[in-house]
Amino acid sequence: MIRGVFFDAAGVLYDRKVPTGRYAVRLLAERGHGREPTEAERARLKATQAKASTGQIDAGYYWDEFLLSRGVTDPEERRELIGLIMEQTHQVFGLPGARATLAALKKRGLVVGIITDTIYPLEWKMRWLAEVGVADLVDVVACSRVVGVQKPNPAIYTEALRQAGLAPDEAVFVGHEGREIDGAHAVGMVTVAVNHEPSVWADYYIQALPDLLALPLFTLPSA
User: 0.85 cut: is pTM over it?
Assistant: First the structure.
């Protein structure tokens, strides 16, 4: 019996008109910084992002490294650009049906949770969820910066389950990236893909969040 539903946040409950990384590259191009990072720099950036996502360093340090890899050598310009990038991260919008879907799940007595990777403070993540109207419906949050691991590491899923007091087979994970859905499946959760990459394998696929309510997992028994 399913007793809880856990969601990825960005790309599932909310999104940005332009992904922040793409925004940063466009901002640099507008200022004449067209340098592409070397393979070694890309590898270092990936490692730096992982450190930020697991709470070892802050997001500003990651973006400083990002800008250096793109040829921005002036410290003052980097500070200015980091400010603009950070401002852009707060420009989120809710995806259709997010609040109505979570509210319906809560009405059916299900625990609602978030399992999220982020390089930003958890307080920012909760602010974005509040801005799109779902934070008050969330019972449990497992955040990579707090837990210290990223998806698909099983520890972040098991931490969410621990907080909710659920076994893996009592929980559903709703995501959009293959790696995060694979991680949930590996710990024994039922998986649902939405707004997903073409190659994602999941137990169920939906076109939009409200379609979740029609899955046999959540249909109410007839009277």
Answer: yes
